[in-house]
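Thread: Modeling a multi-component assembly for a lab meeting

Hi all, long-time lurker, first post. My supervisor asked me to bring a structural picture of a complex we are working on to next week's group meeting, and I have zero experience with this. I have the sequence lines for every component (608 residues in total). Could someone generate the structure of the whole assembly? Inputs are pasted exactly as I received them:
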Amino acid sequence: MTFSVTILGSNSALPTTKRYPTAQVLNVSERFFLIDCGEGTQLQLRSNKIKFSRINNIFISHLHGDHVFGLIGLISTFGLLGRTNDLHIYAHSDLETLLQPQIDYFCNDLGFKPVYHHLNTKEPETIFEDKSVTVTSFPLKHRVPTCGFLFREKQKEPNIRKEAITKYSLGIADIVKIKRGEPFFDSNGQQIYAGELILPPPPPRSYAFCSDTGYNPAMIPVIKNVDLLYHEATFAEEHKELAKKTTHSTARQAAEIAKEANAGKLILGHFSSRYDDLSVIENEAREIFPETYLVNDGDVWEVK
Amino acid sequence: MTFSVTILGSNSALPTTKRYPTAQVLNVSERFFLIDCGEGTQLQLRSNKIKFSRINNIFISHLHGDHVFGLIGLISTFGLLGRTNDLHIYAHSDLETLLQPQIDYFCNDLGFKPVYHHLNTKEPETIFEDKSVTVTSFPLKHRVPTCGFLFREKQKEPNIRKEAITKYSLGIADIVKIKRGEPFFDSNGQQIYAGELILPPPPPRSYAFCSDTGYNPAMIPVIKNVDLLYHEATFAEEHKELAKKTTHSTARQAAEIAKEANAGKLILGHFSSRYDDLSVIENEAREIFPETYLVNDGDVWEVK
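Re: Modeling a multi-component assembly
Sure thing. I ran the full set together rather than chain by chain. Output:
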């Protein structure tokens, strides 16, 4: 099952010719969860061949323009493409106040309903759940109320060993019971060891999005053991004071979070336009957390 | 003196990977007049190396999203870049109502003032004038109130012939008078023929922007003899009924306007995404008006 994140934009507030402002899509078996929506997101979705109709949920971390200015254009385009499915938008409550008047003015005859879900910016909360994934929002530390998002696959049922189906002539009713964890007895009334019947399911994968935020160890319990962590690294340590003042993180701080959270891999983005050479960001983080990589627009990161 | 238009976006409502939504900049001696501002305009300005600080006037033809969604991002970026000059925005009065709440929310500490000029969408009006150019708005024919814009250079003073300066020992006071058209007498009291003293100035150049609009012959007197005419050609004649229904133009209709207006050259844009091959648009227009060209994003058209 696909579980990967595509980077649509990876710059901080001032977009460049190479990096759009923040936006990502998480692909969960070809259903797409959009995370943030900076200006040009719809163009990047097209460039990356993401089907617009597969996006039903948009998660907005906070209401700074570089994370949200692409939303009205995307909604307008959804409308022109004849969308009818509800569009769920998870964001600070102010978004509805700001966005809806624009929708009312610019997108008349919109064939679908934007459904606003107001984020709890004070404590972690499960905000979305379906059969295969849960999404938890949690507070970040920024100049305005901001949430990170944790996407976690649900634990799958074990798989039945093919050879066991033949050996014990398992029917569908047997398989359902075995998958549920009930004991199985063969035709002689002998209980069969579970390991002979089932293969353990793959462990559930998880992805966390943490941007924008200053150094925020409070979130570590929420993202503990995450497989793939995206964390902002707007600055290098040489601009630590500026990071503090603007409540952004340095690369070292991001790496410290990844280390403390025991993350599988750390990917960094939201770079300040002041760095022509980003190796300073990469090297600084790798000193603390070797499994660190810088993202580029168009990257696809598989969660493993 | 430069007088050219750079195409930043040339598609109709649905942007593609090759064509952004509508935006152009007219370069008048390295001062830039922005015309419309679809999503991604700031990215296209960067790609085309246009200095943001040289843009002081923005002309918005009408309030459909594909002509205006890039404005809030551009204004936000102007603010982050430390702009202090007033930014003049010429648009339908509703824009102020829609845009200002977003500016108030997203662009706090904005170091400059957006100055709104409400367009007269009923009749032609001179809306901007400085020492070298005048801008006239005029009504187009669309589903919402829409204006075209005519940019016209002012008549320059004649140049003094170098050989006349030597021959008649012309001082600055003489030159000023001759340029004004006053008679000049040599040391013998003989009046000198003006043609011996001056070179005629180049004729003033003009550029007209007409998008979005249905077939609109009412504007012909305003744009009569324009050197370069940009006209929308959303459709080909095969979709004439659709053009009528949506108050857009076919390529043939655009060409008829160019012919009737005695334009020097016609450039077409705002193409519907339905045409994979745009030669149908080009060929159709050229049958009526041979000097027709299709624009592409990134094109620079000199006005001659």
